[in-house]
Amino acid sequence: MRAMDLKSENRTSPMGLDEKNPRLSWRLDDPRCGARQTAYRLVVASTLEKLTGKPDLWDTGRVNGDRTLDVVYAGKALKSRQDVWWRVQAWDHEGLAGEWSDPAHFVMGYLKPSDWKAQWIGRPLDSREESQPCPFLRHEFQLPADAVRARVHVTARGLFELRLDGRRVGEDYFTPGWTDYSKRVQYLVYDVTSDLKAGLHALGVILGDGWYAGHLGFKGERFQYGDTLSLLLQLDVDLADGTSRTILSGPDWRTILGPIRSSDIYHGEHYDARLEMPGWDRPEYDDSVWQPVTVFPASRAALVAKVNEPVRRQEELATREQTEPVFGVHVFDLGQNMVGWARIKIRGRPGQKVTMRYAEMLNADGTVYTANLRGAKGTDSYICRSEGEEVFEPHFTFHGFRYVELTGLREKPVPEDVTGIVLHSGMPATGAFECSDPLVNRLQQNIVWGQKGNFLEVPTDCPQRDERLGWTGDAQVFIRTACFNRDVESFFEKWCADVADSQLSSGSFPHVVPDVLGGQGDCAAWADAGVICPWTVYLCYGDTRILERQYDSMRRFVEWRCKTSRGYIHDRACFGDWLSIDIAENDPGRTPTPRDLIATAYFAHTAGILSRVAAILGRKADARKYREIQRKVKAAFNREFVSPSGRVVGDTQTGYLLALGFDLLSKRHQAHALERLVADIEGRGWKLSTGFVGTPLLAPVLTRFGRMDVAYRLLMQQEYPSWLYTVLQGGTTMWERWNSYTKHGGFGDVNMNSFNHYAYGAIGEWMYNTVAGIDLDPAEPGYKHILIHPRPGGGLTWVRGELMTRQGVVTSRWALVDGMMEVQVTIPPNTRATVVLPGRKPVKVAAGRYEYRVKLGR
């Protein structure tokens, strides 16, 4: 047995932790059946040499037990900027000590506000009317000896690109990321030791508007957080001669406006290559025409280390097809709706302007369809500097697109001139789902691409139009599927902190987080994300710290519900069952499912979750209190919305799904409610009528109450409205509406017609935990106890499911062969599972690989 994949605060070799007691985790490498850890020893040291000799920070000694996740550091107090090395030894189920793991490493950030000596610097804003050119800043410094350790701590109010001696520092984009800048500003740490030798060096920084000062929100206004971009940078250098130097952002820096004439998230980037300043970020550059920077006061916002992986380049997409629908208008099809930007190769002449427009779809005449971008221009432009080939990529904008339109070219381009650069937050792939039906496989790919496109710093609703906001309702209905597809623990840890920051004074949560809509909130299913999302992260990753950190905001929210309800009936569900089928096209919030029914159902649901969280955290009085509140809300729900026979007011699919899915009905009413639900689906030709609230519950509720056949029928439905309908219309991501586009009817309402909107992708959860049959046990979260329960249906003949949990890889594969169901299961070391197969009693198994053959009945 050997420990592997060592992580600190759920990240590999993180730089700049400001958690004084980091959590340390590992997985086990041991292929033997029944493999489990019976003890561990964890050692921590300040150097690699001491780690393998005499650890000077912490030695747990041998600790009996099977714990491998979130062991809280309890050694000597860690210091700012400290290097920390650690490794683990594990004892197996036979009591034998395994080899030591490979060493792991992390670096502490600044642990005290007083560690920051740098000043906020930038240049004054010239005009508030239009987007401004991006400021360039530079500073030269001398080192008398080579560096033996050099780390730069850097952040910005706005976005920054950091350069050292002519090279870009790091591989991150859109740094420092999006938070409520009035409350928290994130900083990042980079190791530049190998770049700093004795001699003269130059630091260069470009600042961009980003979310801080760019256009944001429905009104398209700028300066949501501030109107002046600024930099905070501190470079700590320990030298080979035993001395140290600290280089600070301050009044001795210089600034100028450069070739990036504007760069806006909604509207795109405009770049004039004639204004480039070769060597501006290198030593001995003549900056005599540059101006002194302005020093700006610090804000009251907390400076915190970034806890989630930054946005990075993830992959590249080549052009699939090139067309010229109008003379001089060249359209490139990348074959996949994606998020990021295009790398463009241009052959022009000095002063020639090339324009790039981005679109998700094409009009019937082959030109790009941009009406659904609303006020967002989604356009980049580039002015050439020379006669030779030039390559352009933007800096501080991103686009949602499949198609790129180029105009202004002097000669006809070739397909290789346009390449899609896919960007999203770092979140390693963890899940894989594949089956015998190619349309379902395409659906799974669409779900994943929708997640990749919208998980850029925050879980946005859409990535292309003048919105791109962190809608809370979308996030909470999709989060369980997100946890299957990707490792999103640190992503949601950061966003849940944003949710708490954005909590309204009333105790409710806003519609979007970070809140740029001015305190709009109090909406059931959206505000409930403040309780549901931390709870789901806990279930999927076993992380109790997120419950501890979010508990107060969760409690305040449920208390707000108590105060604003009447007789435990709540009525604040402003969006209803958003985009449900039975609504007027011009009023998507109107819904046949009563809003007070939706709000009261969620009241009961989140009160129940809070009760469970309180029990887990040892808050026994709170657990009893909120359990009693849940009981009273359920009683009120039945009095108000359920007839004596079990009919739910409104008689809608969503109403029955909420009542059944949130356990609001008595046993005697469940059967009638299920009957009414199925009757409605059947009466519509075996079709759904649900919107954002009801759709995620459809398949899970039908399966739980014995009508998996109906769930499969809905999954495999190909007519409107259905998941496969959008696939058959050519969709490569999830859509905002079931009919955002139809081959016979064209495009839907341009006011709200996103072709990359992940909410309906919540069906992915059911595909993993029911079709493939990989699920967790809430009593032992983080897949410590795994539930394997594959359930065939829908005409599928084989399914392969895989999930990389924090414990290791879980697989569940099945195939139907000659009336038999052949099943292969893999359970990772240090876990156990319960396997349930058709017609068989549950079987409890330890770690290992298992094969089963089950004869299927009629």
Q: Specify the overall morphology.
A: globular
Radius of gyration: 28 Å
* Beta-strand content bin: 25-35%
* Main sheet record: 10 strands, mixed
Number of helices: 15
The count of strands amounts to 45
List unreliable stretches of 5+ residues: none
Structural class: alpha+beta
Helix share, percent: 10-25%
For the termini, the CA-CA separation is 45 Å
Mean pLDDT: 96
Question: What's the short version?
Answer:
The protein is α+β, with helices and mostly antiparallel strands. The protein has 15 helices and 45 strands.
Description:
The protein is an alpha+beta fold and 858 residues long. The protein is 22% helix and 31% strand. It is built from 15 helices and 45 strands. Strands 20, 21, 25, 26, 27, 28, 31, 32, 33 and 34 form a ten-stranded mixed beta sheet that branches. A hairpin with an 8-residue loop joins strand 40 (774-776) and strand 41. Helix 5 (489-502) packs parallel to helix 7, helix 7 packs across helix 8 (595-616) and helix 10 (653-661) packs across helix 12 (695-704). The radius of gyration is 28 Å and the shape is globular. The protein starts with a strand and ends with a strand. The model has no long low-confidence stretch (mean pLDDT 96).
